[in-house]
Amino acid sequence: MRALTAEQFSVADAVGGVRGVVESVAPGLLFVVVYLASGQRLTPALIAAAGAAVVAVVVRLVQRTPVTQAFSGLVGVGIGVIWAWRSGDASDYFAYGLWVNVAYLLATLVSILAGWPLVGLVMGLFRAEGPLSSNGSWGAAVAWRADPVLRRRYALATWPWVAMFGVRLAVQVPLYLADEVAWLGTAKLAMGLPLTALTLWLSWSLVRGSAALPARPRPLPEP
């Protein structure tokens, strides 16, 4: 999400570079491939997915690079593996991801309806005067709410995220209910990083230049 505040949009930065793509794609891809290649045996597929996630974290630890992305992926894969192992249903490997999309869909939609659009919060957090800077403050981070133009712009830029999570659920939930493991895994991969990068670009295009726009002061009450 930090890519929204960049002067130039970079697809590589948006998806975490080549390593980010591999770490994100490998567990799900291996799960589907091993599941089909083993004659739809669940255990080898779960071991392959979990192994890929663990290797990603170990490599980052050995190389002393940030492990946040790899570790968050390990947590997600771990939950999926445990869920599928306990139920014995391969489709349940993807159930956690579906619930995460439900949560994000509700969060982004509610943020717009409540007047605190997610993109506005991200811009406020990561722009130069935001609270994550060395001398930023929360007041500066939400100063955009005093400007109706910025509020509308950030709300508009949040709608692509609502649409992305909604489209994912509209496609993947029927496949999950139909127990179409191969198609579900394929849809998850196709609608993962590629769709996220497209959504980031759309949001970035809609907010481009807004970091340079000061919030309009509130009118003083008449005496």
UniProtKB/TrEMBL annotation:
Transmembrane parts of this sequence: 21-38, 44-62, 69-86, 98-126
InterPro entries reported for this sequence: UCP010219
Annotated keywords: Membrane, Transmembrane, Transmembrane helix
Superkingdom of the organism of origin: Bacteria
Keyword Cell wall biogenesis/degradation in record: no
UniProt protein name: DUF3159 domain-containing protein
